[in-house]
Prior knowledge:
By secondary structure, this protein is mainly alpha-helical. The protein has helices at about 5-15, 20-45, 50-65, 80-90, 95-100, 115-135, 145-155, 165-175, 180-190, 195.
Amino acid sequence: MTNAFTREHARDLLEEWTASPSLVKHGLSVSFSTEAYGVREAARLGLTGPEAEAFVETYACAGLLHDFDYDRHPSLTEHPFVGVAYLREHGWPEPILHAILAHADYSGTPRESHLDKALFACDELSGFLTACALVKPSKSIHDVEVAGVRKKMKDKAFARAVLREDITAGAELLAIPVEEHIGNCLAAMQAHAEELGLAGTPST
């Protein structure tokens, strides 16, 4: 990636196109979770130094940009196609664009690369973990535990818009148990709790 295509640039685009604070936070949470898988994959591939940093940056950018056009273009005929067309016109790397398309089942884009699989796997789960945190009395992601998340997944009335099958399918794509996948994303989001607004509220 060239210096023009950084997570800072990606975040600027997300915030420029997105009026909804919760949708911006979703982009951030998916980015942090996806980036964590980029770090693991870079290590598995033996990447170090600037090469590893550039590799991981791709994962972070894909997370930030996967829904950046949703606020303006929420219909299935436009999202994520409008956003991807914009990014392609401005020279963003194809692996990021492919992953963004692949995160939407209806796009017909197959999930081929590790980035494709990681982005899809982290999307619904990141939203679900946010919901799990916000129902805690503390509203803190630090009080969310893997076992509790698994229990909430079985409660169809809780966060009903979140597709449980995408969470389990994502873990399968990454070839890890669902519990491990939840733990990985939870740790990534906990590490950025303040930025996500999920550090909790002071007790009164």
